[in-house]
From TrEMBL:
The keyword Transferase applies. GO terms for molecular function: N-acetyltransferase activity. Keywords: Acyltransferase, Transferase. The keyword Transferase applies. SUPFAM superfamilies: Acyl-CoA N-acyltransferases (Nat). PANTHER family: DIAMINE N-ACETYLTRANSFERASE, GH14572P-RELATED. Belongs to the acetyltransferase family. Transmembrane segments: none annotated. Residues 3-157 form the N-acetyltransferase domain. This is N-acetyltransferase. It comes from Zunongwangia profunda.
Length: 160
């Protein structure tokens, strides 16, 4: 099998969205994806792109992707946040995920970033072990905090 990892193009966004939806199903949130191909095209390829993306092709078909963006750490400076790395189910365990992961880490280093970070679900033990074995630290003490749109609306209403 021939694997190629490359920077995504605007034309790749339908395949990227398909992988995002596959990830949502894997994470038991099949109806959670609200974005569209148009959103990905506009947000990733406009004058001020909000993200960058690598795709992994197996035999000339996109079967994996890694979507990331820059963050700024008040302690470290410029960092990369890996939002999602997903490989289609049929191609898991064939090296695509590792190739994408490697590309993101190498890219972060080349860009002068002091850290690459991401979030992993605690029940995804294969991913947790892979990350630990690669040298990454998986923190138990830190908790991800989110406020969804309804909660933001409520909060803003209360603070007016």
């Amino acid at each position: 099998m021939n694997i190629e990892v490359r920077k995504a193009t605007k034309q790749d966004m339908p395949a990227v969205l398909k992988l995002i939806n596959e990830l949502a199903k894997f994470e038991n949130e099949p109806d959670a994806v609200e974005i569209t191909v148009k959103d990905l095209e506009n947000d990733g390829f406009g004058d001020r792109p909000l993200f960058e993306c690598f795709v992994a092709e197996a035999n000339d078909t996109i079967e994996g992707m890694a979507l990331f963006y820059y963050r700024y750490s008040t302690w470290k400076g410029k960092t990369v946040h890996l939002e999602d790395l997903v490989v289609s189910e049929a191609f898991r365990g064939k090296g695509l995920g590792k190739a994408l992961y490697t590309k993101v880490i190498q890219y972060s280093k080349q860009q002068g970033c002091k850290r690459t970070e991401w979030v992993v679900l605690d029940w995804n033990t294969n991913a947790v072990e892979f990350y630990k074995n690669s040298g990454a630290t998986v923190f138990d003490e830190w908790r991800t905090v989110q406020m969804d749109e309804a909660a933001m609306d409520s909060f803003c209403d209360k603070t007016r």
